[in-house]
Structure formats: structure tokens, C-alpha cells
Design goal:
two-stranded antiparallel ribbon; binds coenzyme A; alpha+beta; about 35% strand; about 130 residues
Amino acid sequence: MKTMRIHGIGIDIVDTARIEESIDRFGDRFIDRIFTAAEKAYCAPMSAAGRHYAARFAAKEAIAKALGTGIGADLAWTDMEILRNANGKPGANLTGAGKAFMDRNGIVEIQISLSHADNHAAANAIAIAYD
Ligand SMILES: CC(C)(COP(=O)(O)OP(=O)(O)OC[C@H]1O[C@@H](n2cnc3c(N)ncnc32)[C@H](O)[C@@H]1OP(=O)(O)O)[C@@H](O)C(=O)NCCC(=O)NCCS
């Protein structure tokens, strides 16, 4: 019988102004390094786009902590895609090195939660494995 195991949890808080400054300074060079096309398509048209980008940035750092990899050889920024279901609930889909790390460690699912206010965005993540 398979047993569920929590591989790890992660949390992150982001200063929204720092993300906005990076977008103002580097534009698509910054956005495309960190975010996928689908994430950009969701965030860019928003009146407070920086908040939505900041929440997704926080989610990616929270996932990096939940996996325990940090962001690097085992997990690139664009290996993680933060999506929403029809009700607005966010989810994370991993590809590339991140998906390979999940497979090696029996991780089958990553659940996330996002929050943002005027100046900060926060996220947490939990990586669920089956042995
Ligand atoms: C793990 C990672 C996401 C931490 O992010 P951070 O913003 O540097 O740090 P935070 O202040 O949010 O969190 C720090 C805590 O993360 C935790 N942490 C560090 N490495 C971790 C890992 N591999 N797994 C889980 N948690 C980790 C530690 O508890 C640390 O607290 P401590 O130093 O007091 O022990 C970081 O290692 C990383 O890979 N960041 C990407 C940085 C980057 O590329 N920035 C460029 C932006 S364009």
C-alpha cells in the first residue's frame, strides 16, 4: 500500500516594490527569466500587475523551499508554472529539472497558497510524496 508523506513545506514573502523595480528596469528580460508565457499572460494585463507577479515570485521561492532544492540546477524559475483553476485557486505545475527532482523523490503534488496586500506578497507551498 502506498503511504503519503510530506516531503517539505515552504514559505516566502516578497516586497512588491522590488519586483516592480526589476520590471521597470529590465522589462521582459526580467519577466521572461522568471515567469512562463502563461503567467505573463495572466499578470501583465492586470492593473496591479506587480502584485500578481510578486505573489508568483513568492510561490516559486516557497516551492524551492518545500522541495529543499533552492533555485538552481535542480529547479529553474521557469520549471515552475503557477496556474489558477476555474474558481481562482492557484496550483503549481513543474517541468524540466524540477519535474525530474519530483520524480526522483516520489513527489506527486505541490499545493500552494498565495496572498498579496499593498506592499507585500506571500506564498506557501507543500510538497506531497507517495512511497
Ligand atoms: C531557498 C531560497 C529560495 C531562499 O530564498 P531567499 O529569498 O534567499 O531567502 P528567504 O529570506 O526568503 O528565506 C531564508 C530561509 O530559507 C530557508 N532555506 C534556505 N535554503 C533552503 C533550502 N534549500 N530548502 C528549504 N529552505 C531553505 C532557510 O531557513 C533560510 O533561513 P535562515 O538563513 O535563517 O536559515 C534561495 O536559496 C534561492 O534559491 N533563491 C533564489 C535567489 C535568486 O536567484 N534570486 C534572483 C532573483 S532575480
